[in-house]
Amino acid sequence: MDKKFVNIIVLGFAFMFVFTAFQTCGMIEQTVLDSMGGFGGAGFISLAVIYIVFAAANWIAPMVVSVLTAKWSMIFGGILYCLFIAVFLHPYTWSLYTGSVLIGFGAAFIWTGQGNFLTVNSDSDTMARNSGIFWAMLQSSMFFGNIFVYFEFNGKETIDDDTRYTVFIVLLIVAALGVCIMLFLQTGTSQNLEITRKEDENDVKHPMQSIAKAFHLLFTKRMGMLTFNNFYTGLELGFFSGVYGTCIGRTNAFGSSAKQLVGINGIFIGIGEVLGGAIFGILGKKTIRFGRDPIVILGYVIHVISFYLVFINIPGDAPLVSSGTNKPAYIESNMYLAIVCSFLLGFADSCFNTQTYSIVGSLYPDDSAPAFALFKFMQSLAAAIAFFYSTALDLSWQLLILVVVGTIGTWLFCLVEWDVHSELKRKKQDEINAINN
């Protein structure tokens, strides 16, 4: 089997384990802390701190990847993820926010390393396939982790200490296994990989060049236009990964099932993510012929539909009332509709992220570390902003922000994609003309 493809599979398994722990943790964090009575920390603020540090750390992440290599940057980042999850065994306000800062740095290192490693192990023919396969494996983490949470939270209106210990000990072990799997990632396994490894060694001599490249890329036309799409993926990440599940758990109309629904919500988001990633991975060579824009437009349409359904089904004050809301929604709140929305949010997110990975990796194969660092910078900055305003804005305003930014981001993504296709057609025509002459 192709060693590059094996690397993609090993990378997918490693991230599946690490993010089974972290994404499950992120979805239940506010719910768990709400059950701790007088605890001074807030889950949304913790998540906001994670993503604001993540955003800032992305500027130094290319330099870290240049020095440590992609593999060891991901391992170092994974260890920081484990430390954050361990905080919830005996949470204190200071440890919660300290852990949030540490994992913010870890996220920058692990994701910039991942983007570089994915690009190195792909080419123009396999980038779409590999992005889809990796995304499907990554997001299956939401499926497994939340099934576990569903059974642990079954029938519980509050999360007691014993349940919290059990959940986070298991999540910590799973995250540690993911870090161990990263040790099996291979570097320099082919001619192209060896060339890249040598280039990375040369970059170590001038690591500040990585930061300079990131600044330079930020002000290029195509990256500037993609910035709006990247920002949107961060806003919707904040919404589906933290805000929406909490809103479901706080909707008293769902009765004693509300806390269980938080886990089911995560499961169906994961199913949507995995289905989307698998489809776009398996059909990557076919879909790339028609461009990335139809898939992104599909994701946008599904997002708008799901936002409307959330708007009419969930009470507007659900993000703001920690004790739960009795306020009626525009329709009688329906738990089945809420879970359908979870699936739609996950599937649409996979549309955006698989195509964003594909276009960034294809446009910047020689500058993959700074390019993916910029992508993650805008995404994490937006997620931080989303978590901050989620504590102050009514649900309807949050959904309106998503629709407006999503519309702009989708339009600009399509303009970049059309520009890339036009350029490729011109090059092919020039080659044909050169042969004929």
Describe this structure in words.
- The chain is an all-alpha fold.
- It contains 16 helices and no strands.
- The protein has helices at residues 3-34, 43-57, 61-68, 70-86, 93-120, 127-152, 161-182, 191-205, 208-218, 221-249, 258-282, 284-287, 293-313, 335-363, 368-390, 395-436.
- Helix 3 crosses helix 4, helix 3 (61-68) packs across helix 9 (208-218) and helix 6 runs antiparallel to helix 14 (335-363).
- It starts with a helix and ends with a helix.
- The model is unreliable at 189-205 (pLDDT under 50).
Task: Produce the secondary structure layout.
Layout: H1 3-34, H2 43-57, H3 61-68, H4 70-86, H5 93-120, H6 127-152, H7 161-182, H8 191-205, H9 208-218, H10 221-249, H11 258-282, H12 284-287, H13 293-313, H14 335-363, H15 368-390, H16 395-436
Number of strands: 0
Measure the end-to-end span. Answer: 41 Å
Oligomer classification:
single chain
Shape: globular
Helix-strand sequence? HHHHHHHHHHHHHHHH
> What percent of residues are in strands?
under 5%
Helix content: over 70%
Question: What is the radius of gyration computed over CA atoms, rounded to a whole number of angstroms?
Answer: 21 Å
Please, what is the average pLDDT?
A: 83
Per DSSP, the total helix count is 16
Please mark out the parts with pLDDT under 50 across 5 or more consecutive residues, or reply none.
Answer: 189-205
Summarize the biggest pleated sheet: none
Sheet/helix structural class = mainly alpha
